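Minutes, project check-in
Item: structure for the 105-residue chain
Input as provided by the requester:
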Amino acid sequence: MLSALTTWRERVPYGRTESFQDDLRVVTVGWALLTTAWFLPAALDHTHGDVTPPRRAMLQHRLGLAASILDQRLLTLTALCEQVLHESYDVWGHVPLELAPAFRG
């Protein structure tokens, strides 16, 4: 994915600007929150333990990503992500997101 983003940035002038970096941070937090909302029902439902990747792992991974973004405009949202992430650790423990079989070496 990183190489695809690098290639895209090289070919599209806007991709090399600070505005793009700002937009990417905002969109990443938005994507993490939106997809967390999508996967929350399955993460709370114990009958979906055989779903791959586990929804709890996906939820924690995305909340962790969003919480790590440093942007003054997003402090409230990233703090919320960090709070929910730590609450999920308290309830479920740490559920690591493993690489998909296709990406394992």
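Outcome recorded: Residues 18-97 form one domain.
No further action items on this chain.
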